[in-house]
Fold this sequence. Notes:
Blueprint: E1 5-6, H1 41-53, H2 60-73, H3 86-98, H4 102-109, H5 113-116, H6 121-128, H7 130-139, H8 144-147, H9 151-165, H10 168-182, H11 189-209, H12 213-227, H13 229-244, H14 256-270, E2 276-281, H15 284-294, E3 303-309, H16 312-325, E4 327-328, E5 334-335, E6 348-353, E7 359-366, H17 367-375, H18 410-418, H19 424-435, E8 440-445, E9 450-454, H20 459-467, E10 474-479, E11 482-484, E12 495-500, H21 519-531, H22 544-547, E13 580-582, E14 589-591, E15 603-607, E16 613-617, H23 621-628, E17 636-638, E18 644-653, H24 658-668, E19 672-678, E20 685-694, H25 700-708, E21 713-718
Parallel strand pairs: 3-7, 8-12, 14-16
Antiparallel strand pairs: 1-2, 2-3, 4-6, 5-6, 6-7, 8-9, 10-11, 10-12, 13-17, 15-16, 18-20, 18-21, 19-20
Amino acid sequence: MSAEATSPGAPIRRRGRPRIDLRRLGRVALLGPVSRDRLPDAIGHVAEAHRAHHPDADLSILHRAYVLAESSHRGQTRKSGEPYITHPLAVTLILAQLGAETTTLTASLLHDTVEDTDVTLDQVREQFGKEVCYLVDGVTKLEKVDYGAAAEPETFRKMLVATGDDVRVMSIKLADRLHNMRTLGVMRPEKQARIAKVTRDVLIPLAERLGVQALKTELEDLVFAILHPEEYERTRALIAAATARTDGSGATPQDPLAAIAENVTTVLREAGIPAEVLIRPRHFVSVHRVGVKRGELRGTDFGRLLVLVGEDADCYAVLGELHTCFTPVISEFKDFIAAPKFNLYQSLHTAVVGEDGAVAEVLIRTHRMHKVAEAGVIALGNPYAADGGAGPQTTEPADGERADPTRPGWLSRLLAWQQSAPDPDTFWTTLRADLAQDREITVFRTDGGTLGLPAGASCVDAAYAQYGVEAHTCIGARVNGRLATLGTVLSDGDTVQLLLAEDAASGPSPDWLDHARTPAARIAITGWLDTHPEDTRSPHGVRPAQARPEQPPQGHTRPGPRPPEPLVGPAATPDGAANAVVDRPDATVRLAGCCTPAPPDAVTGFVVRGGAVTVHRLECAAVTRMRSVGRMPVGVSWGDDIECRVTLVAESFGRPRLLADLTEAIATADVAIISATVEPPSEQRVRHTYTLQLPDPAALPALMRAMRDVPGVYDVSRARRPVTVA
């Protein structure tokens, strides 16, 4: 299998670099004859790579930066014995190959001068400007003498904060780590493993989030070789065996992927679609993952087809031709052009079946998409350039902070929660956990805004993302218009409305931590719980004082257990039943507890055991059931007495003083409470049942509206189950 080969067929003019192969950038590119009157050939390599992306770039600043870096690092060597200047040159060459603009390359040449030499930030600022100075300062490590064991996490915190204002800081750090990983073999095995683990847990996820796939894939392979040497060797042997089956160009009939590539080239040429078809080999970790997933590798599993076109519309034209002329594997289709990934990645993914049954994965993208897919934010050039420069223009926010050019969300969230994690250990642990969440979703707020959250985030996470510490008072949510618990997991595209209590004294429950995925939510919840140890809370986020019924206003009946409901008899007849007139003289009348009829409801009655008549509302389900079994209804009308008794059920989210506020709303409506029952909370929801004496049934709609207006109450309805009245 070749490293990268153009498929057979009619020659197609190349419109861009098919793949940036960083492994070819070795020591040979850095070494060359050096004399006092001219610069080494290494700067020539950097200049050539830079001009390939930026033909009009001014190279004089790079020359000046090299002179300062070479003179300040003179006499220093790396552990391998090479002159130290080879390291900043290698880092700069990596970034130049990826298309970084001149300012980034200048800072890259100088990135170790302040840390390892006598050069100061003031000197850098004076000679190269404040922008280069900011980038150099951003990647400069903190001294272990000052920070001890906290030096590494605090250095990363410093870099991330600097990245929040300029993502080029992290671009330099990633290239720096790549060159260090390439030359890690001179270190002790235990130190190699430690550096590889940090790279795996922090740098590789950051490279993924910034979209720099060219750096990410090589870092993954280098880490794989150090931490899993046996699996690495097995994978290397498999790739070597696959390569041996070809002539090194990927063009022999023994390579099934090359055969499919030839057919694809022919199909697109006949369709008149200008396209470049390439075989893109998988890197070691990708081959290993496919092997773990499928068990046995197929000949087409060692690479994928890459189709490069000129315009977005051509991508869909290619897709249509492939799905027409080949058998597509529909489950493999993904459209990352219409819905780009959060790290800028755009491409169409599909898979087709060749003539011999071989399945080939196909990536379809424009040359511009391919450049961004490889280099991510580095391909943006200077994303903050006011004149447009090499990257997109961004508007300067009113607060003076630069917008994240990758995607508003993950970086802003990271910068927000790190402020609440003053302890380096907490920051370091939380950072690794946060970066391990490699997928992101977008949910919509009802005010028209959006929230970027990690996949698996719940309403708890959305609350803290939108309201910060004010989310402590959150009592529930509506997801896509439906009421939901705070533990509800959100999906991409959901609309969420968070409901906050007016009582600022309320706070989160310990079991909110079971639903929190974002560091911001976990840190805020933990901080509140730590500062309120005396506030023992129930498992469902309701204070015990609220979970138990509060003392009702004087003169009201205290809630108590519900005794069995008598079937018939005068003692069981509520006051409101006297106002119901039935067409059976001398019959005992009772109002059904399942639907609690009251004037002016349309009602009917049915004779029950003992000759009593139970009155139901016409829409009650019991009426349908009795008619279905042949029970004959009894005519019922309302008498002249306008007073009536009704049972209402209030559904609410638990919070302190809820019972007091509800009873106050009822009392304000001049309605007497006959009895009240509060059920134990379930998933932070509480059900209140009130039997009320209304002076006028016409006041019932207004009363129900007043109860619904109580904060935390989301529904008030007539009781639909047996209820005991005094």
